[in-house]
Amino acid sequence: MNNLFVFCELDEGRPAEVSLELLTRGRSLADTLGCRLEALVLGSGLDGIENELFPYGVDVVHLGDDPVLEHYRTMPYTSVITGLFKQEQPQIALMGATTTGRDLGPRVSSALHSGLTADCTSLEIGDHYVKKTDTTYKNLLYQIRPAFGGNIIATIINPDHRPQMATVREGVMKREIINKNYRGELRRIDVSAFIKPEDLAVEIIERHMEARKVDIKSAQIIVSGGYGVGSKENFAMLYELASLLGGEVAASRAAVDAGYAGHERQVGQTGVTVRPKLYIACGISGQIQHTAGMNQSGKIIAINNDPMAPINSIADYVINGDVAEVIPRLIKYYKANAR
Amino acid sequence: MNGIKIVVLAKQVPDTRNVGPDAMKADGTVNRSVLPAIFNPEDLNALEQALRIKESYEGVTVTLLTMGPVRAAEIIREGLYRGADDGILLTDRAFAGSDTLATSYALALAVRRLAPDLVIGGRQAIDGDTAQVGPQVAEKLGWPQVTYAEEMHFEGERLIIRRRLERGVENVSAPLPLVVTVNGTAPACRYRNAKLVMKYKYARTDTELQAESSDYIAAGRPAIKITEWGVDAIGADPEKLGLSGSPTKVKEIENVILQSKESKRLTASDGDIESLVRELLENHTIG
Ligand SMILES: Cc1cc2nc3c(=O)[nH]c(=O)nc-3n(C[C@H](O)[C@H](O)[C@H](O)COP(=O)(O)OP(=O)(O)OC[C@H]3O[C@@H](n4cnc5c(N)ncnc54)[C@H](O)[C@@H]3O)c2cc1C
Ligand SMILES: Cc1cc2nc3c(=O)[nH]c(=O)nc-3n(C[C@H](O)[C@H](O)[C@H](O)COP(=O)(O)OP(=O)(O)OC[C@H]3O[C@@H](n4cnc5c(N)ncnc54)[C@H](O)[C@@H]3O)c2cc1C
User: Fold this and answer.
1) Which terminal residue of chain B, N or C, has fewer Cβ atoms less than 10 Å from its own Cβ?
2) What pLDDT band is residue B259 in, cutting at 50, 70 and 90?
């Protein structure tokens, strides 16, 4: 009872990256709280899926395996989850801030009358003191999120309602296996007990999913280009540098909008959040919507011909110059010095 | 579908997309007075979807519903200029400070009173940025929802909707009544219609009329009223509204000031670039 639950989404039948990241964070929060970490998986044909989750320190996997759950649909998923949560009374429930999690989370929170915080960038445990009533709430979930187009960061709490629900985007938390031999318990959910016929009102006619191709999120080194790179042709230099360094090419939204790079490479608030070891920002001004997606990078190099560009204030190295001169020199001296 | 009644959920929001340095006060709160208040962008996409249905069938009505301060009547007029039939402003002190759950409680009660067949909202508002209100309203009504819509049309009595997902598209078929939220990738909203601007320019809520000068009233403008509803009109329980009705509380707000770290300044010269590359190789940043 009162444990920490993570709704584990599936991606082509395997646990989604964001769900594994949430399990990793969930494990450490559960340790702080002294409670169990429980995972909830819904889908069809999922034999053995629990074995992919236990290594993240999952104590219980609740598995709803039924053909009716094959593809995500709002109502049947909501009914199963709210039904299970009413029984299990979790204190915290986490979901990915994916198109699925952001469709499902509010529906579940509304049904349970519990608060939901969207798109958290950090989750911590802490206390909260209310002066008026002189009460201290112990061990609340601090849900830290940007709002107002990324211009403010708010810490949100849900003192009186459970579960405390939050969604988190992919790439924000780190994923780490705790122990590959960790074994928890598997519990099967009686799906038919929760689903009502009217839950099936919306029918899926067809789905076209594209396979994930470019993966800038797991790249250790990112060479990112902005509008200042000037053209799609100039992006070729960035690809050359990235491939030499074993990295990936990313882009700002202005560069994507200009057609210099595909949308799957966009870093920022409406793109991907990345935290590589090294982020080289080429001709990127450094607007908040962009930096929100990369300011956790280990080291940042800014290449910009404007000495006052905002990106410079978060960079470890500021190269004041033209992208078209600097990149070829980086390539040249890397080739000359690397072994 | 002839004769259906559509409610469009629309929110007036500060334009957070081009926030200048003066948009934040020293205490970290937002200085709303310097930001222009606009029609939430994706709610315009939602309105366009409703207007397209209205044009394709007989007897369809489109009503805008917005909850906010009196000033939010501006976006109702904006909707009327583009082809909506009427609008309801949900305004009351008791609504202030509502989180998404309390907001959706109030909106759902207002929708119930309007008794439409279809509710269309935007995916997300650009200030709170949660995308939670649409699904929460649907749940409160006990209706199905379809989120991230970019195209929709009727086939018989069912709506066929194309949803934009992060990795592709999904086509679904849904019955009425239904809540749909519309994605920014859907067609942009049509422009104002000059005739409608003339017609609705002086549409006012009661509260707005009281604030108008006597000259304005003496000019005898055509009296088009925008309906104002408060807590009583929708039969809301005040305990479920505002701060008391909101499970989430804002504990702290921090203005995002980029923290300046010590940065090394370099030029594009061969010497500077070569020493940078060597430094990065030595400290294993690259290898
Ligand atoms: C810094 C900050 C952080 C916040 N974080 C959270 C949080 O994590 N969780 C939470 O529950 N609340 C949160 N809130 C409160 C939330 O912003 C408000 O409840 C807000 O009124 C509705 O949420 P939204 O702007 O996110 O709307 P969204 O859910 O993004 O709006 C989606 C759609 O719903 C419709 N809609 C939304 N509001 C209205 C309205 N007033 N009138 C008509 N239609 C509307 C529109 O069609 C809109 O496009 C936060 C507020 C602040 C200031
Ligand atoms: C709701 C919303 C969401 C957004 N989401 C994102 C997002 O996810 N990701 C994102 O990136 N943006 C996002 N944006 C857009 C963001 O606000 C900026 O407009 C965008 O990041 C700017 O891209 P840029 O820095 O490439 O272009 P610009 O701002 O045009 O900057 C170009 C820079 O290149 C420099 N430059 C020009 N020529 C050269 C040269 N020859 N050599 C060196 N430097 C040169 C200039 O000095 C300038 O600093 C969003 C905006 C909104 C409103």
Assistant:
1) C
2) very low
Which residue, A145, A171, A200, sits at the end of a domain? A200
Residue A234 C-alpha from the chain's centroid: 31
- Say whether pLDDT at A249 is over 80: yes
> Residue A312: which CATH number?
3.40.50.1220
Give the tokens for residue A140. Answer: 């609340």
Both tokens assigned to A204: 């899926």
> Is residue A208 domain-resident?
no
The answer to whether the Cβ–Cβ distance between A319 and B272 falls below 8 Å is yes
Please name the fold of domain B5-240.
Rossmann fold (3.40.50)
Does residue B180 contact residue B161 with C-beta atoms inside 8 Å? yes
Q: Domain range holding A290?
A: 221-337
- What angle do the packed helices A323-337 and A235-245 form, to 10 degrees? 20
Is residue B17 predicted with pLDDT exceeding 80?
no
Q: Is A138 a residue whose pLDDT tops 80?
A: yes
- Structure confidence at residue B258 (pLDDT): 41
Q: Give dist(CA B37, CA A337) in Å, integer.
A: 55
Contact of A328 with A321, CB cutoff 8 Å: no
* Domain assignment of residue A251, yes or no: yes
Per cent of chain B over pLDDT 90 is 76
Ligand 1 probe mutation, B11, B107, B229, most atoms within 8 A of CB: B11
Residues A51 and A86 in one domain: yes
Mutate to test the interface with A, among B103, B139, B283, B284 (most CBs of A within 10 A): B139
Q: Are residues A85 and A165 in the same domain?
A: yes
CA distance A291 to chain B (A): 9
* Ligand 1 contacts CB of residue B127 (under 6 A): yes
Whether the model clears a pTM of 0.90, i.e. scores above it, the answer is no
- Cβ of A107 within 8 Å of Cβ of B263? The answer is no
